[in-house]
Design brief:
Elements (H helix, E strand, L loop, with lengths): L20 E4 L18 H12 L7 E3 L6 H4 L5 H9 L9 H6 L12 H20 L5 E4 L20 H9 L6 E5 L6 H6 L6 E8 L22 E6 L5 H19 L3 E5 L17 H12 L5 E4 L6 H15 L36 H15 L25 H7 L6 H5 L9
Parallel strand pairs: 1-2, 1-3, 3-8, 4-5, 4-7, 5-6, 7-8
EC number: 3.5.1.98
GO molecular function: histone deacetylase activity, hydrolytic mechanism; metal ion binding; transcription coactivator activity; transcription corepressor activity
Main location: nucleus
Amino acid sequence: MVYQAKPFDPITVKASGKNRVAYFYDADVGSFSYGSSHPMKPHRIRMTHSLIMNYGLYKKMEIYRAKPATKQEMCQFHSDEYIDFLSRVTPDNLEMFQKESVKFNVGDDCPVFDGLYEYCSISGGGSMEGAARLNRGKCDVAINYAGGLHHAKKSEASGFCYLNDIVLGIIELLRYHSRVLYIDIDVHHGDGVEEAFYTTDRVMTCSFHKYGEFFPGTGELRDTGVSKGRYYSVNVPLRDGIDDSTYKSVFEPVIGKIMEWYQPSAVVLQCGGDSLSGDRLGCFNLSMRGHANCVNYMKSFGVPMLVVGGGGYTMRNVSRTWAFETGILNNVILDENLPYNDYYEYYGPDYQLDVRPSNMFNVNTPEYLDKVLTGIFANLENTKFAPSVQVNDVPHDREDLGDVDEDTADAKDTRGGSQYARDAIIERDDEF
């Protein structure tokens, strides 16, 4: 018997001495719209940000507006013609691109909307700059909730995702890190990221997702990678109604074993909110604390970590959970009474920071989970000795505006220090 049910205990955050958090947010991201009837709402990122600010978490971390990703940077993974198409297509000229729309899978699920290219560049820029700051040791955790768009392929949009910011962020991390671990707790399989690194042992992908008559239809237990990447793709296929204690009893043993044997020097955690109870498109039964337990567990390893958003289609629940998880990453358990914020009326009638589980039936039987874990551990046996990596010269970094010469920056700014110096100021120890 491999599977052992664990009780779900209240989350306790262990404050670590080293915990510098860089948070990336662009105020424009909430203004984009996929369309009024489309379930994906970028507005939820703005709602999350409002909660984070009103809880006072801005005092704990450094807040940045990343430089949008350039075409050249996007093409480190995506094909030139696909990125060129995204930069040129608009709702007004869509008829001119009918052939390309079919080729690049742009249409129903992935509509063309005003500012599509700008939206992609904001998402990509945040994840790439977060990775660049981790590389240079400027922070221990980087957060980009506008990222996490894990379905996008090299030359194809998919599942509401156009640009795979996660792959671009991992490529950035691979400049400095010999092994990177990608973890996906979205209810959908992280197929775009898995596919990108399916043939390499330098990136291990681990996705916990609903499998069986569910988008995108990939991610079964037997999909483990090919060639040098054999056994470096880990899939945990789950069934409807999984709850907090069951999820924890699967997540922690799998990730614990991976951390022990693969020994990654950087982690990317995709925090899709559609695995929460009551999601419009999801079918899991996780509470806010059950979801956040994954973030808290990963934080306990003390490995440099990039945290990105993802799915999540009940906006008030996604924003509550991401705000709570931002608190955990800053060693704070947020108060359950929501502070007044720009979107306070969304959180009625209780105005509480909580997403509660429903009485949904959990189809994941102990026998089924035992079979899944046995298969995963058998595959992981082959990764017991972390792969060796040939050491090469590190290519030059992504340009980071945070490293501007302070003297010249001060000369241009008359409001008491440079913008970059002010960005770096977080809560002082003697502040009330």
